[in-house]
Amino acid sequence: MFSLQNKISLVTGAGSGIGASIAETFAAAGAWVFVTDRDATAGQETVTRIRATGGDAEFISLDVTKESECEAVAQAVQGSRQRLDILVNNAGVGHVGTMLTTTGADLDRLYSINVRGVFNVTKVFLPGMVARKYGVIVNLASIGGVVGVRDRLAYCASKFAVAGLTKAMALDHALDGVRVNCICPGRVETPFVTGWLKKYSDPEKAFRDAAATQAVGRMGKPEEIAAAALYLASDESAFVTGVEFIIDGGFSAGK
């Protein structure tokens, strides 16, 4: 197992789904984990699960769209642990719609969370990483940030932007000791996805159809994405930066 012993990490959107799984996986690998989320109850539940298994974690409320909150979280981390070694920008939202059915407000909402959120959080932690000549940033993009996905205009636009931010930062700070990569999952069975599928007239069929879009015939699991995040966060991946780490069950293989 890859080790994060003595590393200080922070995961955004860690109250549920992929973010929660990443936080728990990091703690199991020895990292101190700052769990952040807009939902305090969900975030505290993640911390409780981590502590119940002997891990170290602390919850901090964070809306990634608000610069003032990002700055306050950076100050809290600095005051508590003096540094941040690993940042996982996981917080994000989805949207279903084409150009004809997507409004400007829809696009702005996705960009404010999925893109500006990554920018806001990274902005407050990157200077410390550069100063110490050490840091790892893992951004959660999507297979929708690598190939086009039908009926996901705003989502694809925002996730392509996350992939672009990742590559640009990786190049800009490769000689500063900071590695930046993004993970591009296919469909993953998270509370968000299952909740979205329940809106269909036949949720079970919608679930089967969504699972069938992956070549392996099923959705991914949050812990499978967390395993990739652990590798990218560990020193074993020291030669890896600027990559789009695709985990999509073969969805993009024929694209």
Plain-language structure description:
With 255 residues, this protein is α/β, with parallel strands linked by helices. 46% of the residues lie in helices and 15% in strands. It has helices at residues 17-28, 40-52, 67-81, 104-132, 153-172, 191-197, 203-212, 222-233, and strands spanning 8-11, 32-37, 56-61, 86-89, 135-140, 178-185, 244-247. The protein has a 7-stranded parallel β-sheet, sandwiched between helices. Helix 1 (17-28) packs parallel to helix 2 (40-52) and helix 3 (67-81) runs parallel beside helix 4 (104-132). The longest helix is centred in the middle third of the chain and has 29 residues, at 104-132. The two termini are 33 Å apart.
Q: Summarize the main sheet.
A: 7 strands, parallel
Q: What is the SS-derived class?
A: alpha/beta
Strand order of the largest sheet: 3-2-1-4-5-6-7
Count every beta strand, where a strand is a DSSP E run of 2 or more residues.
7
Strand content: 5-15%
> Residue-averaged pLDDT, rounded?
95
Residues in helices, as a percent range: 40-55%
Please report the distance between the alpha carbons of the first and last residues.
33 Å
Tell me, what's the shape? globular
Give the low-pLDDT segments.
Answer: none
